[in-house]
């Protein structure tokens, strides 16, 4: 059963009434409610279209964080074959907030890395809600080094509210680990593709998304700080998160204008959580297109392409 977001309450009422009618009909075969249910379905479909026609930045934040949205694990299971997970940073521990390993994408050997938030209470706690600790970023560095050594393209799937800010993480060098991961993204001489599949939060996202090509799902977000965190700092009031979301320019559409992302991947009507298979298929097509764009480039050209991309960020929007 779909979990409805706050702004979807009117839709929940209509779809709920349609389901109630069908339940009554199942209980009493003599009841004919087909026309009434069909009319409610049509009304719900139109309302869904209206709600998602022009989402505000804050509503996009809500959609990007939807718990039923497909996560990194779902994409890996659906798109990659022969996935062999590699654990640990060979220094301290294995961070379950970061998944990564060797795999094949459309029969091409690759390294895939991503944030995993978890899908239920137990897995969310185990995965630390997708907020990586230093060992998670050091694991990513190890995997990227291996990809460079064996000339394997790297595909990263970003979905995190940000790096874990706990005391232990800071003591183990959180900022240094993020910086090393970002540096490795810039250094490796292989194609690096990144897709923001939900939240792209702060340096925790940049550490995986400093790529040759960055794509964002239509209702994903990417920002230096969460709207709540921004509101707490600027206005000393987390309830001003709507105003903060507007000011941060965190939507895929805004960031595409600034040159931060290279393409926007369309989502099914109502968000990726309403039709995960269609969303995953769209991501698959985008990844293949981006890999094709980088095909034939040597290591030096790939590194230069990646560095120039980040030097150019903002100029596109300023010129406009």
Indicate the structural class: alpha/beta
Helix content: 40-55%
Q: Spans with pLDDT under 50 lasting ≥5 residues?
A: none
Global outline: globular
Global Rg: 21 Å
Q: How many individual helices? A: 15
What's the CATH topology label of the largest domain? 2-enoyl-CoA Hydratase, Chain A, domain 1
Give the helices and strands as they follow along the chain: HHHHEEEHHEHHEHEEHHHEHHH
The CATH homologous superfamily name of the largest domain equals 2-enoyl-CoA Hydratase, Chain A, domain 1
Share in β-strands = 15-25%
Strand runs, count: 8
The number of domains: 2
CATH architecture of the largest domain: Alpha-Beta Complex
Please give a structural write-up.
With 320 residues, the protein is α/β, with parallel strands linked by helices. The protein has two domains: 6-54; 61-319, 2-enoyl-CoA Hydratase, Chain A, domain 1 (Alpha-Beta Complex). It contains 15 helices and eight strands. The protein has helices at residues 9-27, 34-53, 57-64, 72-79, 121-126, 134-149, 167-171, 174-187, 202-209, 227-234, 241-248, 252-258, 276-294, 299-312, 315-319; strands at residues 80-85, 98-105, 108-115, 154-160, 192-201, 213-217, 221-223, 263-265. Strands 1, 2, 3, 4, 5, 6, 7 and 8 form an eight-stranded mixed beta sheet that branches. A hairpin with a 2-residue loop joins strand 2 and strand 3 (108-115). Helix 10 crosses helix 11. The longest helix has 20 residues, at 34-53. The protein is globular and about 70 Å long. The N and C termini lie far apart (44 Å). 41% of the residues are buried. The model has no long low-confidence stretch (mean pLDDT 92).
């Amino acid at each position: 059963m779909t979990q409805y977001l706050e702004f979807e309450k009117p839709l929940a009422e209509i779809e709920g009434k349609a389901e109630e009618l069908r339940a009554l009909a199942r209980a009493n075969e003599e009841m004919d409610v087909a026309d009434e249910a069909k009319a409610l379905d049509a009304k719900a479909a139109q309302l869904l279209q209206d709600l998602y026609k022009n989402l505000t930045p804050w509503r996009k934040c809500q959609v990007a964080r939807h718990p039923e949205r497909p996560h990194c694990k779902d994409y890996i299971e659906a798109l990659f074959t022969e996935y062999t997970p590699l654990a640990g940073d060979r220094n301290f521990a294995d961070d379950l907030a970061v998944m990564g390993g060797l795999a094949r994408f459309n029969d091409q050997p690759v390294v895939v890395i991503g944030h995993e938030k978890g899908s239920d209470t137990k897995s969310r706690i185990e995965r630390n809600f997708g907020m990586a600790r230093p060992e998670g970023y050091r694991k990513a560095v190890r995997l990227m080094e291996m990809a460079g050594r064996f000339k394997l393209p790297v595909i990263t799937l970003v979905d995190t509210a940000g790096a874990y800010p706990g005391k232990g993480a800071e003591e183990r060098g959180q900022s240094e680990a993020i910086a090393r991961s970002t540096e490795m993204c810039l250094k490796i001489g292989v194609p690096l593709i990144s897709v923001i599949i939900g939240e792209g939060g702060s340096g925790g996202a940049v550490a995986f998304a400093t790529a040759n090509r960055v794509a964002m799902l239509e209702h994903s977000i990417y920002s230096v700080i969460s709207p709540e965190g921004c509101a707490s700092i600027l206005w000393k009031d987390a309830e001003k998160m709507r105003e903060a979301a507007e000011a941060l320019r965190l939507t895929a559409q805004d960031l595409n204008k600034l040159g931060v992302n290279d393409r926007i991947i369309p989502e099914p009507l109502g968000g990726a959580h309403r039709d995960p298979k269609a969303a995953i298929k769209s991501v698959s097509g985008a990844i293949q297109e981006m890999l094709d764009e980088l095909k034939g480039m040597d290591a030096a050209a790939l590194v230069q392409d990646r560095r120039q991309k980040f030097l150019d960020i903002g100029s596109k929007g300023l010129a406009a």
